[in-house]
Amino acid sequence: xxxxxxxxxxxxxxxxxxxxxxYLSSKSSPAQVIPILLLVGVVLVxxxxxxxxxxxxxxxxxxxxxxxxxxxxxxxxxxxxxxxxSTNLSEIRSGKPLSIHLFNVGQxxxxxxxxxxxxxxLGGRALVSGAAALSxxxxxxxxxxxxxxxxxxxxxxxxxSLLMQRRFxxxxxxxxxxxxxxxxxxxxxLGVLVAYLLSFQSWFGLLLLVLPFASARRTFRVYVExxxxxxxxxxxxxxxxxxxxxxxxxxxxxxAKYAQAIAEHMGLSQSxxxxxxxxxxxxxxGKIGISLDxxxxxxxxxxxxxxxxxxxxxxxxxxxxxxDFLHDIVDVVRCHHERCDGGGYPxxxxxxxxxxxxxxxxxxxxxxxxxxxxxxxPGMPFDQAIGELRRVAGKQLxxxxxxxxxxxxxxxxxxxxxx
Amino acid sequence: xxxxxxxxxxxxxxVGWVLGHVERPPFDILYVLGLTLSVAIGRxxxxxxxxxxxxxVTLMVGVVGLMLRGADELLIAFIVACMIxxxxxxxxxxxxxxxxxxxxxxxxxxxxxxxxxxxxxVNPASVRAPEGxxxxxxxxxVGAVFVAVDVLTLAVQQWLAGGAPIAEGIVLLLRPLGSVYxxxxxxxxxxxxxxxxLGSWGLGxxxxxxxxLQNSFNLYLRIRRGYAQTIEALAHAAELDRPDDTxxxxxxxxLAVSVGRQMGLTSDExxxxxxxxxxxxxGRIGYxxxxxxxxxxxxxxxxxAGIPFLEGVGPLIKHxxxxxxxxxxxxxxxxxxxxxxDRLRKTHGARAALDILAADEQGYRRSVVDVxxxxxxxxxxxxxxxxxxx
Lengths: 419, 390
Hints:
The complex is a heterodimer. By secondary structure, chain A is mainly α. Chain A contains 20 helices and no strands. Chain B has 2 domains: about 220 residues, no CATH class; about 140 residues, Hypothetical protein af1432 (Orthogonal Bundle). The chains are: A mainly alpha, B mainly alpha.
């Protein structure tokens, strides 16, 4: 939300940026036009393509270009490149408030300006004014990159915390500045290479350096999209496969939601939660071979039918065992019908021997089975099902998991709504 | 273990021999250590190809080393790095992994030895004191030769291990690895260009950037592989419902891809044909005949419509039963004919199935039947696709 405090802050940042530019222009060295135009061209292209680096976090390539401009032609050139980078078309068309655009431009100019000041203060000089050995610019360049990082982190954190009305430290943590830092190191190194190629006037070399990054960027974007879509892909295919039994339609998806909520409540890691989600989506995939009559039969099952049902966790685990991405879920799927008292199937293992994720999945699975309708009985009301969970805790289900689940069910309206 | 020992022995002899013959300038131990480390890292960051083989690309280090200092030190660095790599694989995966690693190490070392002939054509002066874009062109040429030697030896190695014929192997390697090779050549050129001013810092930076770029391609290949395996597993799961159909989707996919290749479909189309064939019956689940027979193509297309990875596969599923029309692609008809063939083969036998199809189908579908017949005939009269795993 753009409050008056945000406006004050944005104005202050822009004023400081302007002062910075005036100060730097008094110390500027003669500049060549062509290299700066080239870098502006590079950032205009890459910024409008929103570059992401294949290490954690996403940083635009524009820092590398601005850094190269600073090393090659001095801080004013860097400011020009930074302004070109921050005025990108898709951002402007996105209809964000003017103050946010101003802030983006202002903070980038101020950060790169401060970096340039640090560079000059430590005796760094522009490569355009004569060849410099790496050892001469090493210290000032490192200081400049660090200055940029610190200034950028502070300005963005203040801006974001004012905008989202959150605490400063909380914002710093949530924005993932460590991965930002590692990307920045790589981009600074890229900037050094670009600056030297510019000073050699090796235009072809510059092209050879920029092209791989452009093509890697495209591949990496597809990778990110596919990674994000993986769970939903599994979900739509599983939904289709489950369609045969009207009574379990949507079961896997609901179980996934319960299981995820329990795991998050128990403080499991992000990757465990993801494994659990996938396991929950696929936990009944081995049931597909069982005939519909067996699954929805209101009568007592025959021994053969019982054996068929008891085989589904193993069958499901076998189905996914060859999939690299689903390697971690094999045991979870296999053990989701084990009981803590050892009376479950297929292996009859006890308590802690059952993987924790499988114990969570078992609780979520039982709860959804109790609360949804079957051919031969209507679903239980929630309160009654919670009572049932408590009753079997320590026998069928894990006590700690049930305690967490009951807490989640009573606290979290989101989970209840999922049903 | 014997492989590791023999590699150490042979490696030691070669290192000794090279050291005895190295011409001046004297050998720079730090430089060799740096090279060794780079090669070892490059070998450990292997790339998994769609067909499952792991390969590694150390082209950037190879080209840079070759052009800056020549083949002698490079050869030593490669041998030592290969020994480290084989030992690492032995610790990780036992004797089998070590054997694979040894075979591949011998290939890598042979590539460098072959490349040392090319080195004599490089003008060292232009590399050491470059002007403008001076050395870049020769780097590109050396890089291209390097790629050719690397891919050729790799294809031969895979062929000897029972893989695809060499010509096909080269295509299968170049499609996923082309971009990685290009990154390596480009970064080698940059590294050599900045080397006179930036020295080993420049080389290190270029190597780091190369590995990061390569990693993005690697991640991309890995996720595609993950999707392919997942779709295959779920297509298999979908068939559990209809025991009569077990293996049908897989057989149709194998046949359709090989028929489609002979019909001149592009590799993009072939990939879509493969997925469409695997999933062409997914819309049947939960519906009774004959409703399922009529509606499953539309339903199947709807199911995959929202999946980004399967973009373009939906229409193939939707139209696999169509006999013609403007929006029916060639791929859809290939899937449709192969599906009919597989079903008829099961009930009537292969010969009768082909006769029925030949009498029944028209237009493009008829020409697909001809290709199926040829493929089946080539199959030694079994008239069953060779790769099928039913």
